Amino acid sequence: MAMRLSVIICTKNRRDSLLAAIASLGECRFRKPWEIIVVDNGSSDDTSDAARRALSKLPIPSRVIYEEKRGNGHGRNAAVAIAAGEIAFFTDDDCLVDVNALEALDREFEDQQLGFVAGRIDLFNPLDYLCCYFYRSTPLYFRKPWFLQPGFVQGSNMAFRLHPIRGGVGLFDPIFGAGARFAGEDLELAMRFLLSGWNGKYSPEVRVRHNHGRSAEDYRKLEHFYDEGVGAYIEKTLSSAKCGVATRASIALFMMRLAIRSKPTFQRVSAGRTSYLEAIAQQ
């Protein structure tokens, strides 16, 4: 039987949280062939060795690879290059995957029109700042010319068909992602799937618990990075030849609403659009 799922986790200097994530995968129920790939994206501690020891105790094919190029985009692309599964499920090293998540994900991808699935993200610790989660209890469907707004697809719980990534849709853009210039490699790739004619879905049955450990102050320090990433994502989407009139109108409406709702956020997003154009011009 062909390998169905490749579960991919990128990590850097998060040994203890990564081991908890691996342990949660060991509890998952899934009857089809699957594998685990851990990408060490520049750790200076014993993260890789600890991951290998933990994975060796599981009855699941697994690998730990090292990617020296900084950023989640590079790390995820390194895993995509060697993944054997039909579907790549990405989660973070501070997430605990629900025991039924993989089976739920497999059911969703029975729909051959789905290119990606985003899942529910619960907070693990109720004392953590209320961020980096998505609690919606009912499904959402995404189709072109939908403009995929921030929050619907997050790197801590998302899955993509691999053959479009290796084909016409393309790999993660390494200018995006944690450790790179802009946040948002997850959202940007999902939008490219939509522009290429694939559908997407949010499924509340595919669940993880996010143990991010951030305080309000921690999140405030990340706001500029996240918001400028949204601006860069918007600008890249607009630059695509596949971005039609309806999608452009949807983006304009999003920006208009953002300007009304929060001027500081609007300004950060707008700065990100400018910074993206400058970064591309320098390449």
In short:
The protein has 283 residues and is of the alpha/beta class. It contains 9 helices and 9 strands.
Q: Indicate how many domains the architecture comprises.
A: 2
Regarding CATH, which class of the largest domain? Alpha Beta
Report the principal-axis shape.
globular
Q: β content, as a range?
A: 15-25%
Sequence of secondary-structure elements: EHEHEHEEHEEEHHEHHH
Low-pLDDT stretches: none
Helical run tally = 9
Helix content: 40-55%
Under CATH, the topology of the largest domain can be stated as Spore Coat Polysaccharide Biosynthesis Protein SpsA, Chain A
Global Rg: 18 Å
**Amino-to-carboxy terminus distance:** 43 Å
- At CATH level 2, the architecture of the largest domain is Alpha-Beta Complex
Structural class: alpha/beta
Major beta sheet summary: 9 strands, mixed
User: Based on DSSP secondary structure assignment, what is the total number of beta strands?
Assistant: 9
Average pLDDT number: 95
Task: Give the name of the CATH superfamily of the largest domain.
Answer: Spore Coat Polysaccharide Biosynthesis Protein SpsA, Chain A
Any key phrases for this structure?
283 residues; alpha/beta; Spore Coat Polysaccharide Biosynthesis Protein SpsA, Chain A; 2 domains; nine-stranded mixed beta sheet; 9 helices; 9 strands; globular
